[in-house]
């Protein structure tokens, strides 16, 4: 029993880095935008597994101000939860609703962030729970947990 537990924990520790890097198989490229009739159209390519779903978010950044980061709110299109991979994805931002006077300057750019939809990562919770349980069992069965070497007395016989 103890050997099986140790073998499982070793396998879990060896496989853990490969499983953690599974989220690295998604990326965004070719981010570009244009202003059309007081709306900003942001285009991007989402590279990932075709059978998985992704959460996509949009940030407005500015070259002239490194601390400037704004999350557009009046957006629609290929943004939010449950999106699939593909090219020429489009997000439409009605920026006039958020900036009625417009935005001054020409050093703005967009950053598109993406991650796998969290509903597909529930198996991690199960893996961690099983690993923690097995670790607890292993620690319980370890020699340090045993008694200090003093002989234990047997239980007294039951009453007649």
Unreliable sequence segments: 4-22
How would you characterize the largest beta sheet? 4 strands, antiparallel
Query: What is the N-to-C order of secondary-structure elements (H for helix, E for strand)?
Result: HEEEEEEEEH
Based on Cα principal axes, name the global outline: elongated
Helical percent range? 10-25%
Overall strand count: 8
- The proportion of strand residues reads 35-45%
The helix count comes to 2
Structural class: alpha+beta
- Terminus-to-terminus distance: 39 Å
Rounded mean pLDDT score: 78
Spatial sequence of strands, sheet with the most strands: 1-2-7-5
Gyration radius, in Å: 27 Å
Task: Report on the architecture of this protein.
This protein is of the alpha+beta class and about 160 residues long. The chain is about 25% helix and about 35% strand. The chain has 2 helices and 8 strands. It has helices at about 1-20, 120-140, and strands at about 25-35, 40-45, 55-60, 65-70, 75, 80-85, 85-95, 110-115. It has a 4-stranded antiparallel β-sheet, with no helix packed on it. Strand 1 (about 25-35) and strand 2 (about 40-45) form a beta hairpin. The longest helix is centred in the C-terminal third of the chain and has 20 residues, at about 120-140. The chain is elongated, with a radius of gyration of 27 Å. About 10% of the residues are buried.
Keywords:
alpha+beta; four-stranded antiparallel β-sheet; 24% helix; 36% strand
In short:
The chain is of the alpha+beta class and 160 residues long.
